[in-house]
Design a protein that fits this description.
Length: 201
């Protein structure tokens, strides 16, 4: 037990002396750092004078060319000196013969052929489907009339009933070139189309 105390005292004394030595060393080196003159670096600036010689000569613009002289006014004609007995020349108007009958109903020139789509109107996205983020399509069947319009649209299939009314309204605005058989436009029943509703990214 006594040996441990003695060992501890010796170790403590060594540590204390070591700390005192380190502190003294720090104090001495700190004084040297404060008293030692520092090297100062000087920056040299070279000033260059601006060339302040400006060309102050007056610049005289060239004179624009003179406008051409106005032509003399034409003297008024003396109508009192016209001879009423002077001979006249009678020129008959040309005869133009053109046929204005271009054929077809309503004056349209209709060529033979099947019906063709001319105008397709994009549907208005239903507000309820837009608020829910729904997408889908509607398959419809209708008749193309002799005037190229759409009648009797019927929904065949749809992904949601929210799209059906908007699809029918869009289809009723479609325009077609009617089908022509022997020079006479005929209705085309059973035309099918799909209206797709998709949200843009």
């Amino acid at each position: 037990m006594l040996g441990r105390y003695t060992f501890s005292i010796v170790i403590g004394a060594i540590i204390t002396v070591t700390l005192l030595f380190v502190m003294q060393l720090l104090i001495v080196t700190g004084k040297q750092a404060l008293t030692k003159p520092r090297d100062r670096h000087q920056l040299e600036f070279v000033r260059v004078r601006r060339n302040e010689n400006l060309n102050v000569d007056d610049i005289v613009p060239e004179k624009p060319p003179k406008p051409p002289e106005t032509p003399p006014e034409t003297p008024p004609q003396d109508l009192d000196n016209i001879n009423p007995d002077a001979p006249t020349i009678n020129v008959a108007p040309p005869q133009v013969a053109a046929s204005t009958d271009i054929g077809g109903p309503g004056g349209m020139n209709i060529a033979e052929g099947d019906y063709l789509p001319i105008v397709r109107v994009a549907p208005v996205y239903p507000a309820r489907a837009l608020s829910r983020g729904l997408e889908g399509f509607v398959d419809l069947q209708f008749t193309v009339t002799t005037a190229g319009t759409v009648e009797d649209p019927v929904v065949i299939q749809s992904t949601s009933s929210l799209f059906e009314r908007a699809a029918i309204r869009a289809v009723l605005k479609f325009k077609y070139k009617p089908r022509v058989v022997d020079g006479v436009p005929v209705p085309v029943p059973g035309v099918k189309t799909r209206i797709t509703f998709m949200l843009e990214d």
